[in-house]
Amino acid sequence: MEITKHCVQLELNRRKINQLLLNQRRGSLTQSSNHRPLQRDLAATKRTKTCPTGWTKFSCTCYFVSTKSGSWDEGRKDCITRGADLVVINDKEEQDFISSFANEAAWIGLIDNETEGSWKWVDGTSMTLSFWRDNQPDNWNGDEDCGQYINKQWNDHPCAASLKWICEKLPPWTCCCCPGDGQ
Ligand SMILES: [Ca+2]
Ligand SMILES: [Ca+2]
Ligand SMILES: [Ca+2]
After folding, report:
1. For residue 118, how far is its CA from the centre of ligand 2 (angstroms)?
2. How far is the CA of 90 from the centre of ligand 1 (A)?
3. pLDDT above 70 covers what percent of the chain?
4. pTM over 0.85
5. How far is Cα 88 from Cα 80, in angstroms, rounded to an integer?
6. For the chain, which ranges sit under pLDDT 50?
7. Nearest-ligand number for the alpha carbon of 129
């Protein structure tokens, strides 16, 4: 993915800058014009590290819970309109964050409408780690293909039901994968 490549490049730049600063501190390097673009890049990154108004930052990502309710599709469309997508829960830390962030049932970016029981995230990845409630997913009445966050766990739910939704987006600053960027 382009974004990943971009992150890797920025991480390499960040390391170069750190090395440069270290060398400068040691007095072993004089100012070189070659490094100025990197320093500008780092300065710009630091200046803008906040999520847009109304979004909450966790780790390197911005999150939003809707005030409106609607179907899974409506929720997803709204997230896309906001430059985001429904949340993809990648790990336990993110699941714990969502549990503290969302205080009522909401759509997440999980769906099994193509093949029953084969859960996919909206970014196209297959679900591997999961946080289902006991006895879920149960595809109740043969009509539950959309993932719902509910009370710190997940449930499969009819996609046409009306719920709030949780959007996730990469932040507006450029470096999205630098160690130490958390919170
Ligand atoms: Ca995520
Ligand atoms: Ca299903
Ligand atoms: Ca269910």
Report:
1. 8
2. 5
3. 67
4. no
5. 13
6. 1-3, 28-31, 42, 44-45, 178, 181-183
7. 1
